[in-house]
Amino acid sequence: MPGDMVSQAIEAAHAIGHAHGGRRFAAAVGQFAETLASVPDYTPADVPSGTIPLLKTLAEDVIVQIERRIDAGRDRAVVQRDLAESVYDVRRGLEEIDRWQRHYLGAG
Q: Could you tell me which residues come within 8 angstroms of residue 100 by beta carbon, excluding any fewer than 6 positions away?
């Protein structure tokens, strides 16, 4: 459900901001990226007004947090590499949302 999607995104973003361990941080980032990736599974009528701008804002904040964590250098190299890849996952999710919006706006 789209409402669950918003709750999941907010929970994951909150967990990212409060995670101290690398594994918890990475797991929360993964959950956030999965939530973004689920948006195109819905029709625009299923997604409440304001959801997409909220998700985009959260995504930009998540990317900043990931980049700060990488820059801090407190995680092992493999975790840092995985976090760098997760930035691409989040950006890919944003691109898919943009494509989804264009598809439906163009079809309407």
A: 39, 40
* DSSP structure class, residue 41: G
Task: Write out the H or E segment, with its range, that includes residue 8.
Answer: helix 2-18
Rounded Cα gap, residues 3 and 100, in angstroms: 18
What angle separates helix 77-107 from helix 51-72, to the nearest 10 degrees? 160
- Residue with structure tokens 């999965």? 34
Domain ranges of the chain: 2-107
pTM equals 0.90
Each residue's pLDDT tens digit, 81-103: 999 999 999 999 999 999 999 88
